[in-house]
């Protein structure tokens, strides 16, 4: 990995990961997953209260956490072995533990900040606790400590509510109050099962995060953790999870949004690149050097260009503000790893700024309308089945069928060079315009089937529903381009200017595409 890519990776983890699941907040204060074999989990008592303790050592230094089963909230620990004594201090409460080994067990005392001393007896946990009621089997990778923390909890169903033709029901975990919907009806049963299983897993992850974010005064450090803006359609299920927190051990309070989106036809959870992708397919795999390069070098600059076209005023700094107070939405680095989710208007993208400018985060206007997305399901530019095999015309990532073509015609530019105009029908012209804005100032390939027609730099949006292929072409070259389009797409005689292009039929018969005439 070169230094350029490394900087992008570092940028991703510093700026994006703390937002992604909010689980990384807990990583700042205590280990979450059983990723290390030297973590030891104990269960026992402090006085009469039952506790679970997780400890991890590096030499004489020891860190860890514990919770009272009655409350389940994490309390961070740090300390060291001094001879045969393990001295630990609880971060948020100030309690002191003085322990020693008693065979495989740990024994000793806990002294509260108020000076009260209680006996401590801890035994190693030999096996993880059963999964919490209703917790999916795919959460079996929870650490033994987390399993104990969630053991005995359950989700309580709420009443059913309607969202258009779909029925939703909220499920609530009573201790944390974490609530998330399930879909009762409105999609095929296999899709419902897949999406609801993912929603259940996500809810338990957030319950675990709530207990793992250590606060002060016996409270969780998670101030808000809730689902917002659910959007359900025939094609998508999407929602935003907003959280604000002040976990003990972190530098400052913070907040963030993570969107979750599913394909409502299959139940698959989608990535941003499934909905909006500016590169050559296939999209790079997440968390790879190619992915980080794409997000920083291609995605973010294109987003700034697209938002500049859609929201020119909002992308400009406010008049009269000092430079350090301005929200510079033209800075590509605030868009490379945005929060995102779907709304009725399209794809919402939330910018992410450095700490001093966090009020600039997630502006309410930065929605990419549906027609600019590269997700094709449901629009009328998707190839239609026909008794006669036809090929589609590709402009960037948009596909246009024979039925979308209004006309192919020969013309001449102001330098008297021949050009080829491909006019689209009005109902699909908006898709061409949206794609041209998305691809502005890039090299765009125009192909029909597997045949390349032209490739040139796009310097301005296409607003009239007409693709013009121009250059220093000869008349024969332009006629050859027209022939490829007309014959490959099997256009009807009413769809091209036969007089200007040729005085003979271009193709003998659409039913026999192999028998093609030539343009002289």
UniProtKB/TrEMBL annotation:
Annotated Gene3D superfamilies: 3.30.1360.200
Residues annotated as domain SecDF P1 head subdomain: 399-484
Database matches in InterPro entries: SecDF_P1_head (IPR054384)
Keywords recorded for this protein, A-Z: Signal
Top-rank lineage group of the source organism: Bacteria
The keyword Signal is assigned to this record: yes
Pfam families named in the record: SecDF_P1_head (PF22599)
Signal peptide coordinates: 1-34
This protein's record includes keyword Signal: yes
Annotated protein name in UniProt: SecDF P1 head subdomain domain-containing protein
